[in-house]
Amino acid sequence: MVYEDYEPYDKDKITADGELPFGDYPKLEKYGEWSRDPQADYDVKTFKRNYGEPMHIFYDLYMSPRYDISYKPQTPYWLQGVILFGTFFSFVGGFALCEYYDIRFTVAKVPSEKQFPYQGKVHYTFEPAE
Fold this sequence. Notes:
Keywords: Membrane, Transmembrane, Transmembrane helix. The chain is an all-alpha fold and 130 residues long. The protein has two domains: 1-71, no CATH class; 73-108. It has one helix at 77-100. It is elongated, with a radius of gyration of 33 Å. The mean pLDDT is 82.
């Protein structure tokens, strides 16, 4: 890390983000592993890290199977909620209408007579073979 880029955490007080004092540990940008370039050539490909790269103080929280702080959803959260509840209430409304108008969708098979290739011919018996 270049000396000009080094900025330590405050040693005596809790920061505005509610973080505890961490001594002279460098204050680094928060990013998750999923946000890093997947095509880059890393020393440790599993964690998308290079040797000697400084780690954030909460690195264990931003690892790949955990929360990605820099994630930006493609669909806004309000639209996701509208889609979720719209789909749910559409199904509930559809079932309510089917109950109200007594609409039944059956999938039961209608019984029919057994079909054999030749009528009157014995295909098998339970008698012992001679």
